[in-house]
Amino acid sequence: MPVSKGELFDKQDVYIDYDFEEVMYRYDLKTRKRYVKFYGKEESPYVVPHDNRLYNDALLYGEQITKEEYEKGKPKQ
What share of the chain is helix, strand, coil (3-state, %, to 5)? Predict the structure, then answer.
């Protein structure tokens, strides 16, 4: 189910898992920045642009997950 960028992103940090591409994203409400974490890797220190194709695909086809699930990560399959 798509992750709506509306009110949700104005209220809290958001974590998204997009298993098709083995990637997760974290949206930080305080800084309003997005970060990426590929399966089996650490979170990238680089900010993901809002118009990044993979990020937007994750919003459309991924699912929202918890902070704990994001921090735990997933192994590369």
Answer: 30, 25, 45
Predicted TM-score (pTM) of the model is 0.92
**Tokens 């902070």 sit at which residue?**
67
H-helix segments, the chain: 8-11, 53-61, 67-72
Per-residue pLDDT reduced to its tens digit, 31-60: 999 999 999 999 999 999 999 999 999 999
For residue 15, being part of any structural domain is answered with: yes
Give CA–CA dist 74/60, Å, rounded: 20
Indicate whether 26 belongs to any domain. yes
